[in-house]
TrEMBL record:
Keyword vocabulary terms for this entry: Phosphopantetheine, Phosphoprotein
Keyword Phosphoprotein annotated: yes
Alphabetized Gene3D superfamilies for the sequence: ACP-like (1.10.1200.10)
Sequence ranges assigned to domain Carrier in this UniProt record: 12-89
Source species of the chain: Streptomyces smaragdinus
Name listed for the protein in its UniProt record: Carrier domain-containing protein
Domain of life: Bacteria
Transcription regulation keyword on record: no
């Protein structure tokens, strides 16, 4: 499927989003990715609004998904955000897929 920029994109699975978010959060926290738990709230890792905006900028750049600033608070864990992103990616690309992991 082609994105708005003409780039061919595949809708990532929930697991792919979860792995990607985990890696980004680990980079931000300067700790190994295996220490990031999918069900621990971002706030418990010290993620603030500035960090959330940075993460969302990375998501927009990587996946061409626009996210409202409140999404991290509406979906406050790696698992919840990955689930949301998989659904949004499928919806925006019109595939009807994406919630599975």
């Amino acid at each position: 499927m082609e994105s708005q920029t003409g780039r061919t994109v595949t809708v990532p699975s929930e697991r792919e989003f979860r792995d990607w978010i985990t890696r980004r959060l680990a980079e931000f926290l300067q700790r190994p990715a295996h220490t990031i738990e999918a069900d621990v709230p971002f706030a418990e890792y010290g993620m603030d609004s500035v960090a959330a905006l940075s993460l969302f900028g990375d998501i927009e750049e990587e996946y061409e998904l626009f996210l409202e600033p409140t999404v991290a608070w509406d979906h406050p864990t790696v698992r919840a955000l990955a689930h949301y992103l998989a659904q949004e990616a499928a919806r925006e690309l019109g595939t009807g897929e994406g919630a599975g992991a």
